[in-house]
Amino acid sequence: MINNYTKEPWTLRTDPEDLEWLIHGGDGWICRVMLRGEGRDSEKSANARRIVECVNACKGMDDPLIEIQKYKDTIAFLEEKVRFYEKQRQEIVERVSRIREKFKL
After folding, report:
1. What is the rounded distance in angstroms from the CA atom of residue 102 to the CA atom of residue 105?
2. Is 24 exposed, middle or buried (0-12, 13-18, 19+ CB in 10 A)?
3. Do 35 and 22 contact (CB within 8 A), yes or no?
4. Is the peptide bond prior to 9 cis by the omega test (within 30 degrees of 0)?
5. pLDDT digits over 33-92, tens only?
6. Reduced 3-state DSSP string for the chain
7. Where along the chain do its domains lie?
């Protein structure tokens, strides 16, 4: 898949009057997030930071949705294995305990 997006890293800058956030990438700005007007400034600032962080986190991914889902699936698989082996361990500990009691070890 050809990536037609602006190259990373993207950065976030404020204008000199702090009226907007400028999202920069490659050789110029990509978009502006206006801090004045409707909506809360803190929410707009957080959204601008989130956009930049998400883009940079997905650097090198051809299809972030598919790749992130693969990571989630792998984590879920490994978590299930951990639960399985923790149960196995507990069963072994209980067996050893019964053997010790039986033979007074």
Report:
1. 8
2. middle
3. no
4. yes
5. 887 666 667 788 888 999 999 999 999 888 899 999 999 999 999 999 999 999 999 999
6. CCCCCCCCCCEEEECCCCCEEEEEECCEEEEEEECCCCCCHHHHHHHHHHHHHHHHHCCCCCCHHHHHHHHHHHHHHHHHHHHHHHHHHHHHHHHHHHHHHHHCC
7. 1-61, 63-105
